[in-house]
Amino acid sequence: MRKALVFIAVAALVLGLPFAALAEPFPTVTVQFGDAPGGAGASTAIQILVLLTVLSVAPAILLMTTAFTRIVIVLSFVRQAMGVQQMPPNQVIIGLAMFLTFFIMAPVWNQINQEALQPYLGKKIGQQAAIDAAIKPMREFMLSQTAENDLGLFMDISGRKTPETVQDVPLATLVPSFMLSELKRAFQIGFMIFIPFLVIDMVVASVLMSMGMMMLPPVIISLPFKLLLFVLVDGWSLVVGSLVQSFA
User: Fold this and answer.
1) Where is 26: in which H helix or E strand?
2) Predicted local confidence at residue 13, as pLDDT
3) 64-103 core/surface letters (b: 16 or more CB in 10 A; e: else)
């Protein structure tokens, strides 16, 4: 339960949501009739409302602040470039992207566990100190993958003064900058993936036109050749290896 509270608190800080309602332990939910003495029922209801709000957006925050965005977009580009719209299925693509995300983010999450979660569970540090210690590794990871021009763009949009160091960049500015950088890198990798398959499509289309078979869709002929090329070069290993190394 405390482990969940730490990650929920990180999500609340990223969103800028009020964390005061979560500062106390989880409220006990009981069903009773009549007016609550001293307005305790209203306070409990507000805490539950804030908790449910944070829980509803916490998964999206944890995915958007990790390597998941780049991985799932690149894997989708691979499927589209080969021309097989349903193979592998979406469940396989998302599952592979999630496990690759766990693999890439393991050092960051281990650092959070050692420096924030375990000291907090051992009552060596307070809740706010645990949250600050948990945010630090995630901030360092996002900063290492964020382009300076993207960070500068959102700093200009926000109208805030330029911080003295990157460590002073607020999370509300860092998170969208990180996501924009991830989208750019994913599309750059996708462009490189499309090139060899585009060449095969052009060659097949030229051969069919020279043979006078203009009514035959080139995709039908080029698809087996694209699959053969992808298998011969061990495409999945190349794509996954390049994705993992791109975060080094």
Assistant:
1) none
2) 44
3) bbbbbbbbbbbbbbbbebbbeeeeeeeeebeebbeebbee
